[in-house]
Design brief:
By secondary structure, the protein is an alpha+beta fold. It has 3 domains: 159 residues, 2-Layer Sandwich (Nucleotidyltransferase, domain 5), CATH 3.30.420; 99 residues, 2-Layer Sandwich (Nucleotidyltransferase, domain 5); 70 residues, ATPase, substrate binding domain, subdomain 4 (Actin, Chain A, domain 4). It is 40% helix and 27% strand. It has 12 helices and 18 strands. α5 packs across α11. The longest helix is centred in the last third of the chain and has 24 residues. It is flat and about 60 Å long.
Length: 341
């Protein structure tokens, strides 16, 4: 009864705590925050300098007494204090001082998260002011977010390609029949581009430049004749002097082949371990791609051609998880059923 009364006064939140971006959904108001998961702090007194978009602009550009931190690595908390500060900042920002009761919070986390990591996420949310904290596996949240019939006795396969991990799950009857997590996502794709440029051109580029290349000209499947090129700036490995080179879309395909093939092999492995009846459903319905990595041009065609099953990119794949956890705020019975213990 007390929780119901508290619920009338608090703005319950759903959070997609991602390696690359953190999104916050406020019940009744929608997505109120979508910012990079980056925190900038002083090294001496741990004083917060910036969070989110402002902090991301400082990556690789801070003086010695200031550090830019990505508090999540491979989908899990790597820096507890920075995660807590980041959550506090985002919760305070979306509430804007209007709510005087601690919120109920649902957080989307990778399905392979350990008990220790679950406790770390819960503790960080509670330290940030949450009244109750529920954790939901990101593939389940993404499946709900893209509108898959998760409650039916039929197979639904979702592949959520995030910044730090790719989460693959087969879902039936509101439960995960089989799941597999690989530590390959958008960050590993950026690293692959950085490594390729270093090997081929003896040029050092930063994370931000690699990400920009991936977004602007990145592809994994040749879809046309007019392919893009892009100028990029970096530091020459031998002379140490900055220089500019032009890179071609076909080179990025070559660079991204290794991380993409890891994802494809993981999908094949998941299908091999899926019961035959559910495999038949997946053959009919196809594999659904969600997460920011689903936006890589040609990825659905590449997976479809390699595996031989229909592959569909979800509408607005970046928001799939946050839409799912947002829906669970209105369906508390379903939320309690799919939440991690």
């Amino acid at each position: 009864m007390l929780n119901n009364v508290l619920g009338w006064f608090s703005n319950d939140l759903a959070i997609d705590l991602g390696t690359a971006n953190t999104l916050v959904y406020v019940k009744g108001r929608g997505v109120m925050c979508n910012e990079p998961s980056v925190v900038v702090m002083r090294t001496d007194n741990k004083k917060l300098i910036a969070v989110g978009t402002e902090a991301k602009r400082m990556l690789g550009k801070t003086p010695l007494d200031i550090v830019a931190i990505k508090p999540l690595k491979d989908g899990v908390i790597a820096d507890f204090d920075a995660t807590e500060e980041m959550l506090k900042y985002f919760i305070k920002r979306v509430h804007n001082g209007r709510s005087f009761v601690s919120p109920r919070v649902i957080i989307g986390v990778p399905s392979g998260i350990t008990q220790v990591e679950q406790r770390a996420v819960r503790d960080a949310a509670q330290a940030s002011g949450a009244r109750e904290v529920y954790l939901v596996g990101e593939p389940m949240a993404a499946a709900i977010g893209v509108g898959l019939p998760v409650g039916e006795p039929s197979g639904n396969m979702i592949v959520d390609i995030g910044g730090g991990t790719t989460d693959i799950a087969v879902i039936s009857l509101d439960g995960i029949v089989f799941s597999k997590v690989v530590n390959v996502g958008g960050d590993k794709m950026d690293e692959a581009i950085m490594g390729f440029v270093k090997r081929k051109y003896n040029l050092l580029i930063g994370d931000g430049t690699a990400e920009r290349i991936k977004i602007e000209i990145g592809s994994i499947y040749k879809t046309g004749y007019n392919e893009s090129t892009m100028e990029m700036k970096g530091r020459d490995l031998f002379s140490g002097i900055p220089k500019t080179i032009t890179i071609h879309e076909s080179e990025i395909r070559e660079a991204l082949a290794e991380p993409v093939n890891v994802i494809v092999d993981a999908i094949k492995s998941a299908l091999e371990k899926t019961p035959p009846e559910l495999c038949a459903d997946i053959l009919d319905r196809g594999i659904v791609l969600a997460g920011g990595g689903a936006l890589l041009r040609g990825l659905n065609q590449f997976i479809q051609e390699t595996i031989g099953l229909p592959v569909i990119v979800a509408e607005d794949p970046l928001a799939a998880v946050i839409r799912g956890v947002g829906k669970l705020l209105d369906e508390l019975d379903l939320m309690k059923q799919v939440a991690m213990n």
